[in-house]
Amino acid sequence: MESSPVDITRLLSAWSGGDKEALDELVPVVNRELRRLARRHLRPERSELALQTTELVNEVYLRLVDCSRVRWQDRAHFFAISARLMRRILVDFARSRRAAKRGGEALRVTFDKVLEAPETCAPEWVALDDALRALETLDPRKGRIVELRFFGGLDVKETAEVLSVSTDTILRDWRFAKSWLRRELTRGQEA
Amino acid sequence: MSEAARWSQIERLYHAALERHPDERTVFLDQACAQDEALRREVESLLAHDRPDSDFLDHPAIEVAAHALTAREIEPAALEPGSRIGPYRILERIGRGGMGMVYRAEQQVPVRRTVALKMIKTGMDSENVIIRFKAERQALALMDHPNIARVFDAGATPSGRLYFVMELVDGLPVTEYCQTHGLGLRERLALFIPICQAIQHAHQKGIIHRDIKPSNVLVTAYDGNPAPKVIDFGIAKAMQEPLTERSMHTLAGAVMGTPEYMSPEQAASFGEDIDTRSDVYSLGTVLYQLITGFTPLQATGLAQASDAEILRRIREEVSPPPSARLRDPKLARMVRGDLDWVVMKALEKDRARRYATVSALSDDMENYLAGAPVAAGPPSATYRLMKLARRHRGPVATVAVIAALLVAAVEVSTRQAILARRAQQESAAVSSFLQNDLLAQASANIQASSSERPDPDLKVRTALDRAASQIGGKFAGQPLVEASIRHTIGATYLDLGLFTEAQRQLERAIQLRRQALGERDPATLQSQNLLVSVYIGQGKPSLAEPLGRQVLDMRRQVLGERHPDTLTSLHNMAAIERAFARDAQAEALYAQVAELRRQVLGPQHPDTLKSLTNLAYVSMLLEEYPQAVEINSRVLEIRRSVLGDEHPETMQSRYALALALMNNGQADRAEDMLRGVLEWRRRVLGVSHVDTLNVLNALGMASHYQGKYAQAEDFLNECLDVAGKVLGDRHPTTTACRLNRAEVLQDAGRYEVASREFREISDLNRLWFGDENPDTLRSESNLAIALGLAGHYIEARTLFNQVIALRQRVLGPKNPKTLSSMDSAANLDRRMGRYPEAERAFREVAVLRREVLGPKHPNTLSSLTSLAAVLVEQGRYQEAEPMVQEVLDGPAADRWSRALRQSLLGACLAAQKRFAEAEPLLQASYGELRQEQDRRPFVDRLEVERAHRRLLALQRTQTNSAASLSPNHDR
Fold first, then answer.
1. In whole angstroms, what is the distance from residue B618 CA to residue A166 CA?
2. Cβ–Cβ of B63/A153 closer than 8 Å?
3. Contacts across the A-B interface (CB distance below 8 Å)
4. Which of B42, B56, B58 is the best mutation test for A, with the most CBs of A within 10 A?
5. Which chain A residues touch B58 with a CB distance below 8 Å?
6. Interchain pair B76, A109: CB under 8 A
7. What whole-number distance in Å separates Cα of residue B842 and Cα of residue B856?
8. What's B833-889 look like in SS3?
9. What is the C-alpha separation between B428 and B418, in angstroms, rounded?
10. Cis link prior to B454 (omega < 30° from 0)?
11. What is the DSSP string of B443-498?
């Protein structure tokens, strides 16, 4: 079953217009897309190939949105929106997951794994989002860098290009931002 | 200090501190922060959290998500009691099976009962598994046996996790039960019989379990008596994925059963069908374990062994009989003899030697318990010898059978010898050679006396090689005998596809026969005929042709026009034409041979059918699809009536017919037919056989033609998955499949993905064949088109330019393929709105095409049409109109093209305000295009849109002018 791009675009605009239920519909679709993509990109025999995450993000996004119907001012705009969308999808879902108490559909079970992935240092999504929001208030550029790099999957060079700053700036900001976020997250745990 | 300033300060100090050596930082901060404790604390805490080596946030979110989603050993969180899966409410977890977790659940509708719900681990292709399961469900529903646990349902959660719902059986695995309840030998055997009966019942319903092991045989107490129940029927088959060595990861302890209980044919590499005897084997392992407490295959080292090693051991390792594994001498004595034989017969590696049915096994068990003689006797002497000889499983016959073949072949060739006496002498000598030398050698190996180690590698090839090497000295004075032997050995090599060796033998045979018998002797001609086949097989038609012609002429003279052998030569000449790609000539010849063979051999003779099949094949190459359909249908009919529905050749005809139908616009019929072939081939040849994979590929194409893109992708993915592993990347099936899939993606509108696929294919082609190879160029062309569709216009145009330049150099500036690239590039320009460039490009192509193909050729006209279209788009109607008119006046074209051109003409007329003529034209042509769009999946929608726009533009103009002319017009 493939959702036509039209449905997804409608869901997206509904969601950004404040329709929370649209997200509920959107998530399984995103889930399915992610799984299909992931399966393709991470087949065992291809594990040696580097995962081209920017492409993966782009692809999810292109799949989800009928790009010809959206106006992109420029490349930076596109990436910024993609990253933000990715962030919202992942985090909002984690938020709603926390809200629902017990049981729930088996649907949730698969996504749980995302929240726990032990192999990589995956943060608790909701806490990260809270921390990131705080960072954004203090320093918008650093917030954008984290959003672009972590949620958007852009590398340093691409991020620099999108934000029109030097790679050095990105590296410095990134390092600082990570320290700051790390501190925020550990502080949250101690609390 | 403002917030912002403070923030900057903190940041500055942070970076400055990092630039300093760790030892110096404290001092630096002392100075820099002066008395501001808060500031210092802030900076220090940030520094404390600086971990350059950590990968925090370094892995992008989606990668984390993606990895998590595909991690093989995903152990999802257990379902909580009270949660729902479809109509089932989870009550509690009762276990963890090899496949996933098992829960007790309550079903509400349509009936209220408690069931067992088994969640399958992720990583399975849920949709296909469910489809397979549902196919089995019908049969499963018919099973009604007290010792079989029913499987009620299968489904998938919204997120795609698979689950099965089964009768809840509250019991222990049979081995465990026997142990905890202290059952003696006879009691255990008694328990075994109803298990067999259950499996037998299933077999009678056509269900093979495929995954029998102790944990699938649960024993409960019923009225105080132990009652075994077999569970998980139908699941193993539904979950079956192609058994390759690499998929062993899912084998050990998980999906496809534990290696210890797997039958040898299940472990055989590929291409073996599983039948009921596989269950017999698995039952044998359970029985073995019930008696001895061990599995037959020593579990030691199994966990560490490589997958290939495990499979090999299953196939080859012969286990010691049960009595040998028992420590208690009394028990061992009871088991030794009859019971040993029963168990070992069930565990035979060669399934032909096993009990043919499960009831045979349980009958023998009852015999044993009753003290009656058992059917399984000690292995006979011949069997023991055969076992030693055959260490290698394969479709090739044993040496003894080859020898028989050779004898028969020799007799056939000598039958044509003119002098009977000579024939007798020859055949006697040949037989003696075969018996004394070839067979003796082989039987020496078979007999495996204790002092000699049996030769494990004695296969056909080796036998032949040895025979071939020995001929030389032996028959110095008997050239004809030598020739006969070499001929038949050469023929055997040819059958095996070993062309070089065949060539060597046959050349020598020809030489000898020519010398002794002369040019025109049928025997000589026969050897030469075989050599022609060898050359064709080697892909050397230039060698085959002269020889073939020679043989044909000679046979015509000696045997006559209508002799079967002459017709064989004629058939070969047709094959040579095909090898030269001179398909029109091949077609004529095949048609001729087919007709003659029909008259001489009869319409149902296999050779007649062979010629007809080849004729159909060549027709397809010539795009004469209706003819191909007609011929293949005829051949299929005959084969069905003569050979039956399930014969491999009948299947081949069905496959060929399906391909013809597909290209003839009847893809839906083709799909039905192909599904039938697929089912059969999967069963008989196995899922990894190249013929099975070809059907999958064809199904992908048939789905594609019908616009069923998702289905096409499924088929092609399945094919590619297996073909990549089994046949390798370079195999024609794999490359064809990959290309098909890319095209499906493209036509489904997934341009980005398709581009990626095309790029991959292109890269591979470049790697294998080089930059200038025609296949590489074609794939680069495809890639360029895909990129264009995906919107990467600049890249696409650049690539096109490269391809065109290369093709101009390699194929020539006027080669149709070069021109076709130029045409595609011009189309791209048009799409990009670069009309001047497009115009120039189309003009160039049109001129060249007119020169090369002629002014009336469809492709020439098509280029002219495109040129006219570009002119129209630039508003140059006056130039365009005569061009379109010329094209329309030309030879009749298909509906689509004609409608397109009419639409253009309509636009030109409208521009000249000739509305009365324009409107019907635009209306009608747009209607036609819409119809075509619905009927055919591959039309260019953009053209339909353009036609629509032209119509709308006209209607708008009309309303405007109507309004301006008569403002009081009555609506």
1. 64
2. yes
3. 170
4. B56
5. 121
6. yes
7. 17
8. CCHHHHHHHHHHHHHHHHHHHCCCCHHHHHHHHHHHHHHHHCCCHHHHHHHHHHHHH
9. 16
10. no
11. HHHHH--TTS---TT--HHHHHHHHHHHHHHHTTT-HHHHHHHHHHHHHHHHHHT-
Element (H, E) at B971: none
Cα angle, residue B801 at apex, residues B800 and B804 outer, rounded to 5°: 85
CB contact under 8 A, A58 and B84: no
CA proximity to B251, closest of B287, B209, B207, B210: B210
Closest chain B residue to the Cα of A153, Cα to Cα = B60
According to DSSP, the residues that pair with B222 across neighbouring strands are B225
- Convert the pLDDT of each residue in A69-95 to its tens digit: 444 445 566 666 667 766 766 666 555
CA distance A14 to chain B (A): 22
How many residues in total does chain B contain? Answer: 971
Q: Which residue has the tokens 């098909």?
A: B740
Q: Which residues pair with B165 in a beta bridge?
A: B117, B153
Nearest-by-Cβ selection for B67 from A2, A87, A117: A117
Rg of chain A, C-alpha, whole Å: 17
CA–CA gap between residue B224 and residue B792 (Å, rounded)? 75
pLDDT at B76 over 50: no
Say whether B51 and A182 touch across the interface (CB within 8 A): yes
What is the H or E stretch that residue B648 is in? helix B648-663
Structure confidence at residue B203 (pLDDT): 85
Short-list B162, B167, B148, CA closest to B105: B167
Distance (Å, whole) CA B822 – CA B932: 26
pLDDT at B235: 63
Mean pLDDT over each residue of chain A, to the nearest integer:
62
Residue of A nearest to B72 (CA): A44
Please indicate whether, in this complex, the C-beta atoms of B57 and A178 are within 8 angstroms of each other: yes
Contact A103 B84 (CB under 8 A): yes
pLDDT tens for B525-548 read 989 999 998 898 887 888 999 999
Contact (CB<8Å) B61/A59: no
Angle, CA B325 vertex, CA B254 and CA B323 arms, to 5°: 120
Where residue A43 falls among pLDDT bands split at 50, 70, 90?
very low
Question: Which of B59, B68, B72 is facing A114, going by the closest CB pair?
Answer: B68
Q: What is the dihedral of CA B950, B952, B955, B957, to 10 degrees?
A: -70
Residues of chain A positioned with their CB less than 8 A from the CB of B61: 86-87, 90, 150-151, 153
Alpha carbon distance B894, B487 (integer Å): 55
Which two structure tokens, joined as six digits, stand for B448?
């495996």
Tell me the C-alpha distance between B95 and B172, whole Å: 11
Which of A110, A180, A181 is the best residue to mutate to test the B interface, defined by the most B CB atoms within 10 Å of its own CB?
A110
The two structure tokens encoding residue B66: 């993606």
CA–CA separation, B262 and B285 (whole Å): 9
The alpha carbon of B466 is separated from its chain's Cα centroid by a whole number of angstroms, namely 37
Q: Quick one: closest CA in B to A90, which residue? A: B61
What residues have CB less than 8 Å from B715, skipping those under 6 apart? Answer: B696, B697, B699, B700, B703
Question: Residue B119: which residues within 8 A CB-CB, separation 6 or more?
Answer: A106, B76, B79, B85, B100, B101, B102, B103, B161, B162, B163
pLDDT band at B686 (very low <50, low <70, confident <90, very high): confident
Among the partner residues B65, B71, B159, nearest to A28 by beta-carbon distance: B159
Segment B385-401, tens digit of pLDDT: 333 333 333 222 344 44
Residue in A closest to B57 by C-alpha: A150
Question: DSSP for B82-107?
Answer: T-EETTEEEEEEEEE-SSSEEEEEEE
ipTM score here?
A: 0.70
Q: Which one-letter DSSP state was computed for residue B123?
A: S
